[in-house]
Amino acid sequence: MSSLGTASSSTSPVESAIALLGAARRIAVLSGAGLSKASGISTYRDADGLWMNQNALQFSHAEDLQRDPRGFTRFWARRLSTVEAAQPNPGHAALALLQRLRPATRLVTQNVDGLLSIAGGLDVLELHGSLRRWRCDHCGNRRGPWPFHRCMRCASRARPDVVMFGEMLNPGVLHDAQVAAQESDVFMVVGSTAVVYPAAELPQLAMSRGARLITLNMEPLPQLDAAAAVVLRGAAEVLLPRLLAGIGG
What we know:
The protein is α/β, with parallel strands linked by helices. Helix content is about 40%, strand content about 15%. The strands form two sheets. A six-stranded parallel β-sheet has the order 3-2-1-6-7-8, with helices on both faces. Strand 6, helix 9 (about 200-210) and strand 7 (about 210-215) form a beta-alpha-beta unit. The longest helix has 17 residues, at about 70-85. The mean pLDDT is about 90.
């Protein structure tokens, strides 16, 4: 692991972050809902977010597909419609650019909107899956199309390929994210509260191997900011392009 040094107390947080990212050999980025808010996708804690929506709580378990098939499909189809109408914002574009400037960068996200990939992100590790993919749990079909959200193979109702309450993360994706954290020189948390496990263990895992931590969030992260080498407070779509402008020279 390369030595990244310590930022001078006279430099701004943005300048310090640019210096760390510019000197890093391997970078890992964990992004959350805050990254996609500027694309029109509410975070879980917004007034209209999922945690404030009673319908979301009713249809956030896989068993709800059997309990209320029509309600389940209707709810997730509306969510998919919102995601499909969204476009990547400058924060997504900046992270995709970071991969081009630093090819060893790994992008890990808790988001299910697929916007990092649309922005040009490569091999994005989607911890919670993607609303843009659907699947049939009845016969195992994972290939579309899904007319009327039904499986072409067995005619059963399809479901979004996302991790719902009570389900485990894809073990291969989680393993790759853990390896990325372990191998990183700099680990950056963007727009995530980093309190939901197992994603919350990734920055801790990175720091245990000597990585420097950068946090970028609108609100304080009490469990991480104190251990971070750099704390950036603000919107991802504003701050990330500034970081990439500095790295790109």
